[in-house]
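yo, Replication protein is done. seq:
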Amino acid sequence: MGIFRVKKDVNYSVIHNTPLRDEKLSWRAKGLLAYMLSLPDDWTFHATELSQHAKDGKEITTKTIQELKKAGYLKRYPVQDPKTGKISHWETAVYEIPSTDTENQSVEKPISGKTSQWESNDRKTSDMENHLVEKQTLLSTDNLPSTNKQNTNKQNTNKQNSSSIFSFYENNFGILNSFTAESISQWVNDTSEELVQAAMERALKQQKKWNYAEGILKQWVNKNIRTLADVNAAEIEFKNKGKKGEKKNASVRKNSSFIEKYDFE
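structure:
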């Protein structure tokens, strides 16, 4: 089989061969990692955003991301607000060579000193140092500058949202551990802060914990409920159906809500 190469003077990326020749990775994982490494260092995205750039759906994309995490090509860690000492948001570092050392990672600042949600970093090891190829910045296309600006704005918004939703959790549920913080952060990315807070509020009304709120979010996503307006409409529809039921159950339904028909624990 012949190889037909393209003259690489514009619109190309230089990526280390290590992940491409890693037999532990699936072809899908290699392709996703190559795509992520081809983007500028300050690019901001998550599973939902990534799934929009290929025919694979969000579920497959999420599984591929998990594969890369397990293989050490992605590292996710909390970043603290220097003023409050609390977790303000989560960031993910993207590596061309798998990383296994997490002891020296600071939770106050990403490894590279940047603040994008996804970072691209080269990891130099003693046996690979002489072979490491410095990753070159992807040459700009006509629409890249404006896209970067949009992502920067989105990045800042995500961080503000994460900080706000974390505060809401701590004020109502108690101490926030790293596992729950990461879960909340992912839900904010996949849906919205207002939807996550709405789920928490409904969990609080039932005197339940975060796993109950997460169950609510899963139900909403499955029903394609994406906004507070959708939530309100669904709750009204549920109540109206209850009113049409048998009168002998009216007293039971009187205080019921859209959420009570689900058992999330």
